[in-house]
């Protein structure tokens, strides 16, 4: 089935859907040798997850989309879901750096078209994220998220779109403001363990 949104809730097969997922950021590209799974390894990974789980993957400009296909096929075969993050706001795993201008840069638009058309209409790709930890301090971040989401939905209209977020603010009003565009379905907020083992402030 397809994961959908109604108001502030997600639904799957008529029931509210909540998940605790996995962040498999190196499945498609980057990381140490062996970070990208073989077809058998990907199948085993998804087979061992709880049913209808969510796995977040990075699919950044320049990555090998054949690797994305491999992960997608394994997820679909096992009834699992993917959250596909399209750009990195940090420097890891990609030479591409977003400029946060609107309209979005042509090379970024081209990447969105390639990735989001590739498995368009497939419920397995439950959601996309505009960016991993975008520079939310940028004064144009809200319009940029909206422009990104609109482009994504032009290519895969039924999929959900989230910000991808970061932790530039713990003020809920500020975070909601960044994601106030009509094409945005989800807000991401990244929290990290500190060396003392305590979580930072949550919104």
Descriptive notes:
The structure is a single chain. With 203 residues, the chain is α/β, with parallel strands linked by helices. 29% of the residues lie in helices and 15% in strands. It has five helices and eight strands. It has helices at residues 39-48, 65-77, 106-118, 141-155, 172-178; strands at 3-6, 9-12, 15-16, 22-23, 54-58, 81-85, 125-129, 160-162. It has a five-stranded parallel sheet, covered by helices on one side.
Topology at a glance:
Elements: E1 3-6, E2 9-12, E3 15-16, E4 22-23, H1 39-48, E5 54-58, H2 65-77, E6 81-85, H3 106-118, E7 125-129, H4 141-155, E8 160-162, H5 172-178
Parallel strand pairs: 4-5, 5-6, 6-7, 7-8
Antiparallel strand pairs: 1-2, 2-3
Helix pairs in contact: 1-2, 3-4
Summary keywords:
5 helices, 5-stranded parallel sheet, single chain, alpha/beta, 3-stranded antiparallel sheet, 203 residues
If helices are DSSP runs of H or I spanning 4 or more residues, what is the number of helices? 5
Question: Order of helices and strands, N to C?
Answer: EEEEHEHEHEHEH
Strand content: 5-15%
Shape label: globular
Provide the gyration radius in Å.
Answer: 16 Å
